[in-house]
Amino acid sequence: MPSYEELAALVVAQATVIESLQERLACLEAEVVALRRQVERDSSN
Questions:
Q1: What pLDDT is attached to residue 44?
Q2: What pLDDT does residue 43 have?
Q3: C-alpha distance from residue 39 to each of 28, 30, 45 (Å)
Q4: What percent of the chain has pLDDT above 90?
Q5: Cβ density class 2-41: b for 16+ within 10 Å, e for less
Q6: What would the 3-class secondary structure string for 1-45 be?
Q7: What is the per-residue pLDDT for 10?
């Protein structure tokens, strides 16, 4: 059974991963918006 300290360290590590993934998701969402605008602009020709 893991100790309290091991579990606390795991929570911290998971929080770091979650923060990184949230940042990456925000970047990807912005990229999708930009690409959709580009497609709309290109398809209007």
A1: 76
A2: 87
A3: 16, 14, 11
A4: 93
A5: eeeeeeeeeeeeeeeeeeeeeeeeeeeeeeeeeeeeeeee
A6: CCCHHHHHHHHHHHHHHHHHHHHHHHHHHHHHHHHHHHHHHHHCC
A7: 99
Name residues of the chain where pLDDT drops below 50. Answer: none
Residue type, 28: L
Assign residue 3 a region (left: φ > 0; alpha: ψ between -120 and 50; beta: otherwise).
beta
Distances (CA, A) of 15 to 11, 18, 20, 21: 6, 5, 9, 10
- Quick check: pTM over 0.90? no
